[in-house]
Every structure is written in structure tokens, then in C-alpha cells.
Amino acid sequence: MDAESDVALDILITNVVCVFRTRCHLNLRKIALEGANVIYKRDVGKVLMKLRKPRITATIWSSGKVICTGATSEEEAKFGARRLARSLQKLGFQVIFTDFKVVNVLAVCNMPFEIRLPEFTKSNRPHASYEPELHPAVCYRIKSLRATLQIFSTGSITVTGPNVKAVATAVEQIYPFVFESRKEIL
């Protein structure tokens, strides 16, 4: 087994965060009273609205900015955001769906081997930081992709990036480095 051989790694996307604007002022009190599946947080000045399909939670501000979390793909995030905009239209607001943007993608990937974290950190020093007293994982940053990877000794890697493509590229880039620091099976 070597780093160059093709290994199929399953990257499981656990959360996609997206933002869009409605281009109109939203009356949060009206949304709270007339909307379905809503929680009004008056002290913070926002409304949480949940959709069941796709499973998404949206944070709605009176300025018209909406943040959606909980989707498992970029397509599902866009579909959920459009459904949310439609439900706001049905409440009587002049909503125009604009400025949609995926801002964050969280994914998990399991390596088929365990990793020696101190060795990995030493060989990748400027990009990797490991503080075992504070956190059990190595924090590895790839500035060009704007991606951050949490690498655990079990071989589990949590990846945060701006989009799905960046997350997949980050896993491809990190694989040869973690392969060098894998634990040998006796």
C-alpha cells in the first residue's frame, strides 16, 4: 500500500451554510405570529424558521438577510433557501431571492488507517498545529483553498471549507501527508 495508489475515500458532507437576501424589510413579529415552525428571539432581533424537507434551519433578520444551515449539499441548500423565500412570500412580503451564496461546508472523512499526530505535525510544521492539552486533533490550514482540517489520531478528518469542491481538493491534498505518518499495523 502506497500514497500513489488510488484509494476511494468517502467524504460525508454534514452541513452546508448559505446566505441570501430578500431585498425587502421583514416584520419579524408577523413571521413569528403567522409562520409555521418558528422561534422568535426578540432579545437578539431574529427569527429561527425550520423546514422539514429539506431539513434546514434559517435565521431571519428584519433587514432581509437570511442564513440557512443544515443542508447536506449545495443543491439542497439552494432548494431549501428558495422554499424559505417562497414561504415568506406567502406571508405577504415582497421577497426577491437574491445574492445567494454558499459560505461554509463541513464534511467528515475517515482514513483507512490511524495517524501518528506528533510525527505528522513535525513534518508539516508551518501549516499544522497540535496542542494535545487543548484539543485532541491537529489543526491543518490550507490558505490557498481557505480550508481547515481537524485531523484525529483515529484517522477521522473534519474539513471546513468555502464550498464542496474546496473540501474535496483539501482531502486530496492532505492524503499523501497523513499517509506518511500512518500507524503501522503489527
Task: Explain the overall architecture.
The chain is 26% helix and 35% strand. It is an alpha+beta fold and 186 residues long. A ten-stranded antiparallel sheet has the order 2-3-4-5-1-6-10-9-8-7, covered by helices on one side. Strand 8 and strand 9 form a beta hairpin. The chain has two domains: 17-102, TATA-Binding Protein; 111-181, TATA-Binding Protein (2-Layer Sandwich). The protein starts with 10 loop residues before the first strand and ends in a 6-residue tail after the last helix. The protein is elongated and about 65 Å long. The protein contains four helices and ten strands, in the order βαββββαβαββββα.
Based on the model shown, name its key terms.
186 residues, alpha+beta, TATA-Binding Protein, 2 domains, 4 helices, 26% helix, TBP_dom_sf, transcription regulation, TATA box-binding protein-like 1, cytoplasm, nucleus
A few lines on this structure:
This protein is of the alpha+beta class.
Q: Identify the CATH class of the largest domain.
A: Alpha Beta
**Average of per-residue pLDDT values:** 91
Question: How many distinct folded domains?
Answer: 2
End-to-end distance = 15 Å
What series of H and E elements makes up the topology? EHEEEEHEHEEEEH
Q: CATH architecture of the largest domain, please?
A: 2-Layer Sandwich
Shape: elongated
- Provide the β-strand percentage band: 35-45%
Helix content, binned percent: 25-40%
- Number of distinct helices: 4
Class by alpha and beta content: alpha+beta
Largest sheet: 10 strands, antiparallel
The count of strands amounts to: 10
**The named CATH superfamily of the largest domain:** TATA-Binding Protein
CATH topology of the largest domain: TATA-Binding Protein
The radius of gyration over CA amounts to 21 Å
Multimerization state: single chain
Give the strand line-up of the largest sheet. 2-3-4-5-1-6-10-9-8-7
Query: Which regions are unreliable across 5 or more consecutive residues at pLDDT < 50?
Result: none
